Amino acid sequence: MPVKLRLQRHGKKGKPFYWIVAADTRSKRDGRFLEKLGTYNPNTNPAQIDLNVDGAVRWLENGAQPTDTTRAILSHEGVLLKKHLAGGVKKGALTEEQAEEKFQAWIADKQTKVDAKKSDIQKTREAQEAKAIAAEKAANEARIAAAAPVVEEVAEEEVAAEVSNEEE
Description:
Largest sheet: 5 strands, mixed
CATH class of the largest domain: Alpha Beta
CATH architecture of the largest domain: 2-Layer Sandwich
Strand order of the largest sheet: 4-3-2-1-5
Helix content: 55-70%
Number of strands: 5
Radius of gyration: 31 Å
Number of helices: 4
């Protein structure tokens, strides 16, 4: 039975949410699957990925073929690297401990990059909010300045009307 690692769409219209599954190639996109390996939420920035790395490696070693998008997700999460390191262990080029150490070092490096990107996004968002608040304050001050002469004219007219009422 040919198996693919692919995305199964969930969520509502305009807000996709995907399950990463191992499924028979003959089944429908959202149909029966063999195992759920994780989730992928592209609606957040950066995209939120929750994945069972060991399960994905096991399916890849058994011959499952990932789709293009799933391959990119697996690569981003380090599944393909872990599979590569497992191949090195089988050939005797590495020990299990060395492979795990390399994988953990890669994960730590990846996490620092993701954290840096999150902080950059947060700084950009805060700068945009500060700019919007400053523009709103400037608009309010301009509106108040434009309304001030009109208020003075109305006040003068009211004083003149009161004076004319008193004289009569």
